[in-house]
Amino acid sequence: MSSVARVTTITAFSETSFEDAVAVGIARSVETLRGVKGAWVKEQKVKVEGGSVVEWSVTLEVTFVLDD
To answer: Is 46 exposed, middle or buried (0-12, 13-18, 19+ CB in 10 A)?
Structure first.
């Protein structure tokens, strides 16, 4: 059986950590996309205010299989 996959880019944010930002992004992806098979963390960034990290963000390349 063959299949075709597509990749879409999303960015997710967390006030806790990179790991949480990834979890938020995947959770939101599976609400919208069917057949999510994986993701690649393409980029990580932080927002700094007053010398402290206040937000973590990740850009994900989410792979999902297209319906037949």
So the answer is: exposed
Statement: the pTM of the whole predicted model exceeds 0.70: yes
Write down the domain spans for the chain.
5-65
**Do 66 and 3 meet the contact criterion of CB atoms below 8 Å apart?**
yes
Q: Which of 16, 18, 17 is nearest to 44 (CA)?
A: 18
The domain covering 5-65 belongs, at the CATH homologous superfamily level, to Flavin-binding protein dodecin (3.30.1660.10)
Q: Which of 7, 2, 17 is nearest to 42 (CA)?
A: 7
> What pLDDT, in 10s, does the model give residues 10-57?
999 999 999 999 999 999 999 999 999 999 999 999 999 999 999 999
